[in-house]
Each structure stands twice: as structure tokens, then as C-alpha cells.
Amino acid sequence: MNSRERLAAALSHEEPDRVPVDLGGLATTIELEAYKSLVRHLKIDVPPTCFRQFHVAPDESVLQLFGVDTRYVRPGPADKRYETGSADRVIDDWGVEWYNPPSSYYYDISSSPLQDASMQGLRSYKWPEPDDPGRFRGLADRARDLYENTQYGLVADPVGSGVFEQAWILRGLENFLVDLMLNPSFASALMEQIADVHIALWDNYLDAVGEYVQVAVVIDDLGTEESLMMSPDTYRRLVKPVQSRVWSHIKSRTDAALFLHSCGAIAPLIPDLIEIGVDIMNPVQVSAKGMDPAQLKQRFGDEIVFWGGGCDTQQVLPYGSADDVRNEVATRVAQLSPGGGFVFCQVHNIQPDVPPENIVAMYQAVADYGRYGED
Known about the structure:
Elements: H1 3-11, E1 30-31, H2 32-42, E2 50-52, E3 55-56, H3 60-65, E4 70-73, E5 89-91, E6 97-99, E7 108-111, H4 119-124, H5 139-149, E8 153-156, H6 163-171, H7 173-182, H8 184-209, E9 215-219, H9 232-253, E10 257-261, H10 270-275, E11 280-282, H11 293-300, E12 305-307, H12 316-319, H13 322-336, E13 342-343, H14 356-369
Parallel strand pairs: 4-8, 8-9, 9-10, 10-11, 11-12, 12-13
Antiparallel strand pairs: 1-3, 2-3, 5-6, 6-7
Helix pairs in contact: 2-14, 5-8, 6-7, 6-8, 7-8, 8-9, 13-14
């Protein structure tokens, strides 16, 4: 069974020869410092390539070494970009300024451009240009080449943060959560405008790759470690209809399965997410409240694919021993793999402080424990 067939079986809730393995997506990759340590450990002399901030696109030699079944296609940067004149400050296509503090591995939001906006401000704001040719230049050729000349499962990475997440990035988190409660018409108008941009972006994206990919990724974090970021009622009244509009449009344009990345304690919303078209749930944050993988598999395993949850990235992967990592992987594979519907990946990206020995132990463990039909 080749990688594409293996992924197709898992997505169809059938048991392939082994659990498919993923690495390299926006929410399933490895951060730069961890990657540098890993390739030194593996004695692979290839310069790292970051596709966004410090997220690494792993070299083909690393992907093959770890038996990774997926390969990603993703939009490139727009031709028309903001310039800050500073390496530690970036202004993205939405006009949001990000700052990389000294000795930090991440960029933080330093300016939310719509934090003081009115309804009129939404109408006059300079939104991203979905038709900028830089975003999708060469993407159709890359997708076709991967489809015709390899046997990997192909995944379309997201066009950006989802309607809820992008809204609070533009407004500031506190402001937008208040909007949802006290100014719902403004919150809805902002999310609908974001949805319009996303639909246009996805139209261009899927024109290029839609016939080749098996999976299309969207990102919209809805939870904290303890709870949802809003009440279920608020979600269903305001956020769910806008998500549904974008996601149903994506699914109308491609046969690819819809993959939602949403961190945190989102179990109360899983039936809603399934209802509006989510086929795959990631990252399966096993440390969050109510996200016990065995219970999730029992409740939803026939309806949704679990992509992630293979090893905890908060405690076990960075701070455990190699044996701890192996035991964690063995447990999660046993919980999530029966009957198919599981793609192995750690919970979210491999963080900068993870020892390379633990990364190697994780992939060796899934190779050892992830075969179907074996004790």
C-alpha cells in the first residue's frame, strides 16, 4: 500500500497496512530550533527552509526517514506586501503587525488594525487582495507534479486563520469577545467580510490544486485548555453560520476531506463541526479538558477522522524520556487507530525545546506500534 492509498483508507475509516504519518503542515510541522537540533543529530546537512515565521518545511530526506505519508502544497506570499524595514517586525496581508521579541521563538501581535473600528471602518478597510498572482504562482504545476510523479497523500494548507480567529486578530481578542456579546451585528459583519475574502482565496487556490489534493486544511481555534472561548449558544448563533458558508463552499469545489485545526477543549462543539462539514479534527489536544482520546474515539470515531493526538507536546515530548515518548505513542495509537480514521501526528507543532532523541523515538514508536493486524 502506498502513501496515497494509506491516507485514503484512513480517511474512509478503513484500516490500512499501517497508521499514516504526517509532518510538515502549518499546524503539524516542527519549529526552527528543534529542526536545527534534529538535523544535526541525524547528520543531515541541508539548510532549513521556513515557510511562515519559524515554521519549517522539512527536507525530503527527513520526511522519508520518518516514513511521512503526506506532502503539502500551500499558497505563497502576495506580490504586493507591506514593508516594515525591520527583520523583527512583519505586517501581514491583513494589515496586522507582528513582533518577534528578543530571544523569543515566536511573533506576537503588536498592533490590531481594527481595534477601534466602527461599521463604517469595515467598509473602508483595505482587505487582502485574493487575486494577487504571487499567492498561487506555480502552485498548479507543483501539485500536478506531486500527484503524477509521487505516491504521497497531498494536503492543501490553509489560506489563513479562520473567520473567528482572524476577526479577533484584527480586533484584539478582548475586543472581539465583547463584540460577540454586546455588538453582535458588528461581529457578524466583520466575520462575513473575512469569509468573503477567504472564499475568493479558496476559489483561486482550488483552481490550482483542487483536483489533486486529498485534504484541505482550515484553521479556527475555538477553545482554551479548560473550556470553549465562548458559550456554545454564542458559537451556534454567530460563528457557526459563517464557518459553514466558507467550508461548504470549499467542499463544493473539491472532493478533498475538510481538516479543521482547532486547539483546546472543543468536545462540546464536535457534533456541530461534523454537521457543517468537518471530516478531520486536529490537533486532538489530549491535555485539554474533555479531550480524552479514548472517549472521543468511542463517541465520534465513526464520523470524524482524528489527525493528531499521537504524542503530547506540552509535557511528554519536550520533558519526558525517550521511553516516556514511546509509551505515550503506544497508548495513543492503541486508543485512536482501531477501525482506521486516524492519522498520526504529535499534538500541534514540535516545539523549539524538544530534544532530537525524543523526536526520533516518536517516529520509531509509531513505526513499531502503528501496524494493523499485528500484536
